[in-house]
Predict the structure.
Amino acid sequence: MVIVAAVDRSDRASAVLGEAATIAEAFGEAVDVVHVLSREEFVSLERTNVSETGEAVPIEGVVETAENIANEAIDEAAVDGNPIGLVGNPADEIVEYAHDQGARYIVVAGRKRSPVGKALFGSVVQSVLLSAECPVVSLRTEGD
């Protein structure tokens, strides 16, 4: 089993990793730090690369970019973790990865959104909470 820490590029990532490390230590589990590049981020990366090199980005390169973002979060939080890069719908990919790994917990942090914002744009945290088979720890960080 593992503890899945889902991170993005926000300053909430350190709080997620800190909580995941605490839970992992309590249960003697490893922490898998997951960053999912959304379709929009993938398209942006693809456009940039085609503009600069004239070539498409292979999917392995996209996954590596997502993994590098997870690794940056690990370094910044100064915790032990395994960086995992995924591509797709963030909520779906996080839940599927946790299921495939038999995760004990998923740790996420959301941002404060208005009810209209949630209705229009959805919420990764909300989707993970509703879809995950394992317990989900949802953090509210300062400023939320």
Notes: The first strand starts at residue 2 and ends at 6. The chain has six helices and five strands.
